């Protein structure tokens, strides 16, 4: 089932999310619905707060970036190791490398894109959808998507990484999103 994406301004986007256990109600259905919602919205990642669940759960399919890149950008991704992965109860173990800039967007903040600096490598401790424990290191575009989604479960948004000046420049767009004055190709849930 395709779920509505929570829009900027909803308080759940600013909450630090809680760990879950295998007993979380209908978790497999929720994960399936999140994949369907993400693909329907042309996303490459989706975090539980974006579908109104304040739990430490997010999904990443970094192959979507490679598949949707134009021919010029495909060469940049030639050596990327992509993933399609569920992350539960994730915590960052380490961040490495020199920060690099990439133009990010977010399903919860439609029609807004900004350059964001992030480290190119993240080591993450997490559980998969079967609650098996993992500690893995991710690089490049996959690491960036993971860090973007990880921010969501920590109550942060990509716009928190831009300068106050740039925030002022997009304030009217953010205000319009909060008021529900934005059109998207996917369902959204606005906070009243």
CATH class: Alpha Beta
CATH H-tier superfamily: Peptide deformylase
How would you sum up the major sheet? 5 strands, antiparallel
Helical run tally:
6
Radius of gyration: 16 Å
Helix content range: 25-40%
Low-confidence sequence ranges: none
- The protein's oligomeric status is single chain
- How many distinct beta strands? 9
CATH third-tier fold name: Peptide Deformylase
What is the domain total for the residues? 1
Report strand %.
25-35%
Which CATH architecture would you pick?
A: Alpha-Beta Complex
Instruction: Give the termini distance in whole angstroms.
Output: 24 Å
Shape: globular
Summarize model confidence as the mean pLDDT: 95
Q: What's the arrangement of strands in the largest beta sheet?
A: 2-3-4-7-8
Topology as a string of helices (H) and strands (E)? EHEEHHEEEEEHHHE
Could you say which structural class the secondary elements and strand pairing correspond to?
alpha+beta
Characterization of the model:
With 192 residues, the chain is of the alpha+beta class. It has one domain (5-189): Peptide deformylase (Peptide Deformylase, Alpha-Beta Complex). The chain has six helices and nine strands. The chain has helices spanning 27-40, 63-68, 71-74, 140-153, 164-169, 171-178, and strands at 5-6, 45-47, 57-61, 84-96, 100-106, 109-118, 121-127, 133-139, 188-189. The protein has a five-stranded antiparallel beta sheet with strand order 2-3-4-7-8, sandwiched between helices. The chain is globular, with a radius of gyration of 16 Å. The two termini are 24 Å apart. The model has no long low-confidence stretch (mean pLDDT 95).
């Amino acid at each position: 089932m395709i779920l509505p994406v929570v829009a900027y301004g909803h308080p759940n986007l600013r909450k630090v999310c809680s760990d879950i256990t295998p007993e979380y109600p209908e978790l497999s259905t929720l994960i399936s619905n999140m994949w369907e919602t993400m693909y329907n919205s042309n996303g490459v990642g989706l975090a539980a707060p974006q579908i109104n669940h304040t739990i430490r759960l997010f999904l990443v399919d970094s192959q979507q970036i490679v598949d949707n890149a134009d021919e010029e950008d495909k060469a940049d991704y030639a050596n990327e190791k992509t993933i399609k992965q569920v992350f539960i109860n994730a915590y960052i173990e380490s961040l490495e490398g020199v920060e690099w800039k990439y133009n990010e967007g977010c399903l919860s903040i439609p029609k807004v894109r900004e350059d964001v600096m992030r480290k190119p490598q993240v080591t993450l401790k997490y559980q998969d959808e079967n609650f098996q424990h993992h500690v893995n290191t991710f690089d490049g575009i996959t690491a960036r998507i993971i860090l973007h989604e990880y921010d969501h479960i920590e109550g942060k948004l990509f716009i928190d990484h831009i300068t106050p000046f740039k925030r002022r420049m997009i304030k009217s767009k953010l205000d319009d999103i909060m008021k529900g004055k934005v059109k998207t190709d996917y369902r959204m849930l606005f906070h009243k």
